[in-house]
Amino acid sequence: MNEWFDRYLKALGAADAVLRREEAKLVLELAAESAHASGARQYAPLAAYLAGRAAAGQSREGRLKVLQGAIAAAAQAGPAGGDLGLDL
After folding, report:
1. Average pLDDT of each block of 10 consecutive residues along the chain (88 residues)?
2. Which end of the chain is more exposed for a tag (fewer CB within 10 A), N or C?
3. In total, how many domains does the chain have?
């Protein structure tokens, strides 16, 4: 997608992975929806991580469906109602 992500994937040991624009847009939409619906910004990266776990091993079309479903799930999940219980 861009040089920073190319370097990041190489350092991660996943140089053969590709971040496609359509998937990136959906992940960013998921992060925004997760933060907005939950009322807690820190939920955004965790929701994205969980969606990534759910999408792992899927075809490109499968990943897109998982991400679209994750956005809807974030909207439906509503407010966080409490902290994460993590000492950060």
Report:
1. 91 91 97 96 95 95 97 96 78
2. C
3. 1
